[in-house]
């Protein structure tokens, strides 16, 4: 496979995953913004959302202050934000179009239909109802794309590059959310690991579709250290850092068996996954959750660079 084809497939997977994450982030942040100011409130919630999406600096270059309406526009349809839902869908479609022959009809139609529907929304939404329709459309797009990919594509290098891109993006999104939201939502008079407002932590779990999973695994009220355990160490949770790291190893192994190429990206992925193998949440809290998650993001970004050097250039 040509490196430019592999790159387009990899980034198609990443952009679809990012669009889905931003849609869920917006939905969750609207819930958090409705809380009283003592629990964070409007400005803190949207500041956290922009940071979790990795676009806080871009937003500051366009707006002088943080408020709900401009933040919503920026994250959903903002032309100046390459990581807006609209921007991600457009970039995913452009990459998919470049490798149209590597995709099945169903996979192409899933992403192309999403792009066509996005054109109807323009660059601004006129009501909360329109925004809700936009969020639902993006979530449905991600599900349709994943379903079509899983059900119709050969398990060849094209499939594994798409899945690898999604795994790297998903890991980064979960890490950003956990790091930013943990410190944002911790009340000023609460120690790390203390009792936190149930609604706040429930909203974090909703962002990554993990609330039902949490209840099944822990059968307990929502507690910050258990949320961290689920989203960092639990390999049964598909959005956890440990699960994403293990997925990356698996996908790279599949690519190695098809291409005969194994190198620094594999070693990096195995090293990241190995750090979670016997880890316990108590030891991670002892090290400092912020430091653990920051280290993971650095190593995950390094993995992305090594994948690019090994396969995409």
Description:
This protein has 313 residues and is mainly α. The protein is 75% helix and 0% strand. The chain contains 15 helices and no strands. The longest helix is centred in the N-terminal third of the chain and has 31 residues, at 3-33. The chain starts with a helix and ends with a helix.
Rounded to the nearest angstrom, the radius of gyration is 19 Å
**Low-confidence segments, ≥5 residues, pLDDT <50?**
191-196
* Coarse structural class: mainly alpha
Query: How many separate helices?
Result: 15
Give the mean pLDDT.
89
Shape: globular
Order of helices and strands: HHHHHHHHHHHHHHH
**Portion of residues within helices:** over 70%
C-alpha termini separation? 12 Å
How many E strands? 0
Main beta-sheet strand count, sense and barrel state: none
In short:
The chain is mainly alpha-helical and 313 residues long. It has helices at 3-33, 41-52, 56-62, 68-76, 85-98, 105-121, 128-152, 157-185, 198-207, 211-218, 224-232, 241-259, 264-277, 281-287, 289-312. The chain starts with a helix and ends with a helix.
Notable characteristics:
313 residues; mainly alpha; 15 helices; 75% helix; globular
List the SSEs and their pairings:
Elements: H1 3-33, H2 41-52, H3 56-62, H4 68-76, H5 85-98, H6 105-121, H7 128-152, H8 157-185, H9 198-207, H10 211-218, H11 224-232, H12 241-259, H13 264-277, H14 281-287, H15 289-312
